[in-house]
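User: Quick sanity check before I run a bigger batch. Here is a single chain. Can you write out its predicted 3D structure?
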Amino acid sequence: MIEIIGLVFISIGLFFDFVGCIGLIRLPDVYNRLQASTKCITLGTCSILFGAFLIHGLAAAGIKALLCMVFLALTSPVSAHALARAAHKAGVKLWEKSVVDRYAEDGN
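Assistant: Done. Predicted structure follows.
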């Protein structure tokens, strides 16, 4: 039963990774693409790793999957924020239909 639940989590993760890859191709600017890739990593890859943990249990592979999940959950949002801020400071323009630019409003 646990293996089936693990495979369900892996399937959900593959779906999110696939949708995130489509978002990287279809979205118009660097900020939207960065958001899609961050969601792809946190939801997709962490679901795959959790499914692998459920399948392998507390063996070495399962513990490594949990550690990788924690590492990704901590570093992915931070790195996305740093990349978005660096792109904004470098002068990368938002998509012309973007409504709000919080960095410009704050004067950063």
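The CA atoms of residues 16 and 28 lie 19 Å apart.

User: Great, the batch can go ahead then.
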